[in-house]
Design a protein that fits this description.
Layout: E1 8-16, E2 23-30, E3 41-44, E4 50-52, E5 58-63, E6 69-74, E7 77-83, E8 89-93, E9 101-102, E10 127-128, E11 136-137, E12 160-164, E13 169-171, E14 176-180, E15 185-189, E16 194-198, E17 203-209, E18 215-219, E19 230-235, E20 239-250, E21 255-256, E22 261-262, E23 268-279, E24 284-288, H1 292-298, H2 303-312, H3 320-330
Parallel strand pairs: 9-13
Antiparallel strand pairs: 1-2, 1-8, 2-5, 3-4, 3-6, 6-7, 10-16, 11-16, 12-13, 12-17, 14-15, 15-16, 17-18, 18-19, 19-20, 20-23, 21-22, 23-24
């Protein structure tokens, strides 16, 4: 999906968040010739928060504090570690072997067994395949008159990565992803035609980049749903916030008696989001609505901070971003 990554140089400039001690590290990755390096992996060592550089070699990465260590990786080059606290850091990645795991499915015949079992090519067991030839064909296009989509990325594919069950970040620049919201399958493709679904038992989470090139991370929270993934809106030491989206297919139901009409001419995939907050200390998981009163109640232990946040953001819509940023500020 992406071109090979060349030599890399990292420039990181840190800026403090307006809350807590968190900061946002940002910078540009270039090669020794000064050319931008796209799709370099940038990761915080402690939390495993990950991002990629964009087509201009630029990235931003939220980190816990200015003393956190950041690891920069690019295929074909040695990893380099830097501290987020210093401004305008330039890090040169030298040729060598990266420490990032690469998913390597190999030839199609090698990732499929006759019993439809699990791929173990190169010692990795990510693929749950049930047909010969390297994967099932997934038709992710929708009818022209159908609104919405059963797939997270709609009719296409997106870059992303997986965190395996050991906590290691696993990526391959030749792979693209999509998520089936109806049956809960993470789909992985090499050619954007045939795809395999990733074995849930082998991963902790996955991240897909949306149309705005922003990362969205999903994890399996069995207390919310044991078979479908929830989006992680905030992942802190005090609170974790999740968004679970239930997608249903609604067929066209247009009716008319010549005088009045009801229903729709079109089929539609309808998303119904539900929000949850996990109190890490008490392990209590509670459903929450995007209403000021409900939010203030669920974060009652930090009432003063919540009140101040609402005051500072009085003109903001109470939506996913509002809830995510509020939780981040409390963490």
């Amino acid at each position: 999906m992406k071109k090979n990554i060349a030599f890399a140089v990292l420039l990181i400039a840190t800026a403090k968040f307006s809350v807590a001690q968190s900061i946002t590290a940002s910078g540009t990755v270039k090669n020794e010739k000064g050319e931008a390096v796209r799709s370099a992996l940038v990761q915080e060592s402690d939390t495993k928060t990950v991002t990629y550089t964009d087509s201009l070699g630029f990235f931003t990465l939220p980190v816990k504090s200015a003393n956190e260590q950041i690891v920069v990786s690019a295929k074909g080059y040695k990893d380099e570690k830097v501290l987020a606290k210093d401004n305008n850091i330039v890090v040169v990645l030298k040729p060598g072997k990266s420490g990032v795991k690469e998913m390597t499915p190999g030839d199609p015949d090698k990732i499929v067994n006759s019993a439809g079992g699990v791929n173990t090519t190169q010692g990795y067991s990510f693929f749950n395949v049930s047909s010969a030839g390297g994967g099932n064909l997934f038709n992710i296009s929708r009818k022209e008159d159908t609104k919405g989509s059963r797939y997270l990325v709609g009719d296409g594919w997106a870059k992303g990565y997986v965190v395996d069950k050991t906590g290691a970040t696993v990526k391959n620049d030749n792979f693209a992803y999509n998520y089936d919201k109806i049956n809960g399958s993470l789909l992985l493709t090499q050619d954007k035609r045939a795809a395999v679904d990733v074995d849930r038992d082998q991963i902790q989470s996955f991240t897909i980049y949306n149309k705005l090139d922003q990362p969205e991370t999903y994890t399996l929270v069995t207390a919310i749903n044991p078979t479908h993934y929830s989006q992680v809106l905030s992942d802190g030491s005090k609170y974790k916030v999740y968004k679970f989206t239930k997608t249903t297919f609604v067929k066209s139901d247009f009716k008319t008696d010549g005088m009045t009409s009801t229903g729709n001419h079109y089929d539609e995939y309808v998303d119904e989001p539900t929000y949850y907050v996990l109190n890490v200390k008490t392990s209590a998981l509670q459903k929450i609505s995007l209403k000021a009163k409900a939010i203030k109640q669920i974060f009652a232990a930090d009432a003063d901070k919540v009140k101040a946040y609402f005051s500072d953001h009085a003109d903001d819509d109470i939506n996913d971003t509002f809830l995510s940023n509020l939780a981040d500020s409390l963490n």
